[in-house]
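I am writing to request your help with a piece of structural work I have in hand. I am sending you one protein, given as its amino acid sequence and as whole-number tokens for its backbone shapes. Kindly check, if you would, that the fold set down in the tokens agrees with what the sequence suggests. You will find the record immediately after this paragraph:
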Amino acid sequence: MRELGEERWEGIVLGNLAATILEQGRPEEAAERANQALVLHRRSGNRMSAFACLATLGRSWRELGRPEEALHNIEQALETAWELSNPVREAFALLELGRIQVQLDRLEEALTSNHHAATLHRSIADRVREAEAFEGAGGVHQRLGRPEEAAKLHRQAVAGYRAAGDRWRLACGLHRLAAALEASDRAERAREHWSEALDVASEFTDPEARRLREEITAALAPPSEL
């Protein structure tokens, strides 16, 4: 492609490849490809595709445990979204920013990012990502020792996943809601949600689903069986 001078298309192909590799659980390779694509997009002035590469880089570095690099890239992605006046991209970047801020232990900032992301996703009628933002904020409250606030947000996330028909995220959301309820001394309600989460998770057979079922089964087991 480079011989034909089609750097724009080469960048798009590399960027799509990076995103696919990241979904396959290979963040280091994804970061390498995304960096290559980013150079080409900046050279050709393709800012929309540059945003996608920056978002891929942010998530890749976060998954590799390198949050400072992740923050650098996701802040660039957010600036690009603002320049493009694109609320869809802005909301997406804010979700990732919140996750990175949690990794950096900047929890109050993460709350702000998640709440802003939820508002933007609601405005563009993206129920699933709005629910992800609620779930992110709930997780932050849980880490801050505020399980009742966490439960409220996880309940909103569960409602969003249920309405959208996203069964996998529903299972994960119910698991997190149950944990927040248990921490709020509402053990019976927690068990109800864990039981439903286990039923929903049983619809999936991949390794991640098996790990989730093991966690839920352990949470449901009587203390004498642990």
In short: The first helix runs from residue 7 to 23. Residues 2-125 form a domain with the Serine Threonine Protein Phosphatase 5, Tetratricopeptide repeat fold (CATH 1.25.40.10). The chain has a mean pLDDT of 95.
